[in-house]
Amino acid sequence: MTNAASNPKNHLSRRTVIATAAWTTPVLAAVASAPLAAASNEPLIVGLTGFGATRCGIIDAGAVRFEATVGEKPAPTTGTVAIQLPVGLEFTTGGRTATVNIGQGGVAQVPAFTATGAAGAYTITATYQGVVAYAFGNITASPGQVVQITRTVGTTSSNAPTINWSTVPGLTTATVGAISGDQANGSAGSNAAVLVAGGLVRYWGLNVGSTQSAPGTLQHGGANVANMKFVDAWTSLQVNNNSTGGVAAGSTGGEVYQWYRTGTGTGSPIVVKVNGITGTLVAAESNDGFSYALTSTGLYYWGNATSGTTVDATLIPGTAGASAISTFGVRETSFVHGGAVLFANGTIRQWNNGHTLSTVAGAPAGIAQVEANSGAIIVRTASGDLWTSGAALGFSSGGTAWTRRARNVAAFASWAIRNYVGGLYITSTGTMMQFHASTRIPGISVDYAFRAEAKTGDATGKAITKVFASDGTYLALASDGSVYAWGGNLDNGTRGNPKLVPSDNVIDLNVWGYHPTAGSYYGGGYVIEGTVC
User: Fold this and answer.
1) Contact of 475 with 525, CB cutoff 8 Å
2) Most exposed residue of 13, 18, 68, 127, measured as fewest CB within 10 angstroms of its CB?
3) Quick one: which H or E segment has residue 68?
4) Cα atoms in the 13 Å half-sphere on the side-chain side of 396
5) What tens digit of pLDDT does each residue of 277-308 get?
6) For residues 513 and 417, what is the distance between their CA atoms, to the nearest angstrom?
7) For 528, how many CA atoms within 13 A lie in the half-sphere containing its CB?
8) What pTM was computed for the model?
9) pLDDT tens digits, 57-116
10) Under a CB-based contact definition with an 8 Å cutoff, are residues 11 and 229 in contact?
């Protein structure tokens, strides 16, 4: 029997066909799982809290807690609980194992520990009289050097990509960012933005107006945009469309900026201040077509401005109290957009090709992570269950209805194009699993029931903390800073296994990938390299 607690990120990553991720600085709030009923003398242990910190930071003693019971009563204070930290977390006194005494109310407190590993998802294991419980947590990157990733273009999804690295000059204090791209100029056809010291926004790419060798600094009205906490970026997938853009936001609704540029070569993007937003920022995302800001007041959206100095946002009614968003917007052969908003009570509301929200029926309780794609909604609960719903699962067991696909999941990443979905998830033991499903689209996809398989290869024995998924290209980050890459979806007869990518103490990374219909496979990204804690 296992039970778990989780600490979701305040901004939950989303994936579209381009597999862009927008990472933000953490606002930490624990989510506890509900205790299960036990027989009169049966021992039980559950996770009460999750955890979160910046890499190299210390999580205080007692911040992570478990509750042990015997029947319906707290476990006696004469008992003990065995605590096991994963690779990448270490007790401040040394080591990764500890035996702690049970306190009043059956509560066992985890001693202080340091986050020494790479950024990503970690799972602490507690054992009481043979019963196991988990506490899930998230470690965010400490400031570091940005290194650009490019990959070879694959003619089929089964081509294992060759990854190349080159430093982005001057970006030594980056923490979070976003990157996206298309088929233009192969893997160099991308645009990126990262936050550095002072909350400045630094950008580079094919269309944004500054090259990798000389990144630009986002400005509005002649002054640097500063003190930003959130950032996201997009690149248009439409053939002969050279547009890019993004959003940056601070702590309040009065600190939201959007940028846009089209073309190639050097020059400054158009930067506008977004008006009409109030409240404390929770998340900000930007896609081709629309941008979004979620605050304590609710969810705001606006059509991306292509000129001027300001733009007005619209509040979507009934969204106050929402805790997370996941959005997508793709302008390819046609324009599709949508997303989902998660509320603290577990309700999910979604929109497709408009901003009228509808409630998603039957969603599981205790959602900690949500990703809305064009063909599916995928969620992870605080107890570590992975659930799916949507048209892409029509040929799978459980169909389009909410169906549990896996247990003890620490984190996941997904991609989708029409009714074709895939991705990766990390188990509580740090193992990565690749998954795939599709419902027939003539000339594009076939009926393929949901399946998952473990991916090991060069990553055998490694504790995976972050995974990145796109159509035909996959990357993973281990707690020791090693990076692994491979190509191939599960509907391909030939597909690669994870291969070690030469790197130097990677603490975080961000990757995009794109596969035009009947075309080649493109991708790229960046990593943040840090120092040993």
Assistant:
1) yes
2) 127
3) strand 65-70
4) 28
5) 999 999 999 999 999 999 999 999 999 999 99
6) 12
7) 29
8) 0.85
9) 999 999 999 999 999 999 999 999 999 999 999 999 999 999 999 999 999 999 999 999
10) no
Q: Do residues 228 and 195 lie in contact, with contact meaning Cβ atoms separated by under 8 Å?
A: yes
pLDDT in tens, 125-145: 999 999 999 999 999 888 999
Residue of 279, 161, 180, 271 lying closest to 513 (CA atoms): 180
CB 310 within 8 A of CB 275: yes
Q: What 3-state DSSP class applies to 400?
A: coil
CB 230 within 8 A of CB 238: no
- Phi and psi dihedrals of 188, rounded to 5? -80, -5
Both tokens of 118, joined, read 């790479």
Tokens of 473: 């290209």
Place of tokens 């620490």: 410
Task: Find out whether 528 and 54 touch, Cβ atoms under 8 Å.
Answer: no
Query: What span, in angstroms and rounded, lies between the C-alpha atoms of 80 and 101?
Result: 4
User: With the C-alpha atoms ordered 437, 442, 443, 444, is the resulting torsion angle positive or negative?
Assistant: negative
**Which of 159, 163, 161 minimizes the C-alpha distance to 149?**
163
Q: What values do phi and psi take at 194, rounded to 5?
A: -135, 155
Token pair of 427, please?
């188990």
Write the CATH number of the domain with boundaries 2-23+141-529. Answer: 2.130.10
Stated as kind and residue range, the H or E segment containing 354 is none
How far, CA to CA in Å, does 196 sit from each of 168, 202, 218, 440, 446? Answer: 13, 7, 12, 44, 44
DSSP for 82-132, written as a single string: EEEPPTTEEETTSSSEEEEE--GGGEEEPPPEEE-S-SEEEEEEEEETTEE
Burial of 34 (0-12, 13-18, 19+ CB in 10 A): exposed
Give the position of tokens 């790197």: 503
Six token digits for residue 167: 């430093």
Single-letter amino acid, residue 203: Y
Cα R_g (the chain), whole angstroms: 22
Report residue 197: phi and psi, to 5°.
Answer: -50, 140
Task: Indicate the domain borders of the chain.
Answer: 2-23+141-529, 43-140
The tokens of 116 are what? 């020494």
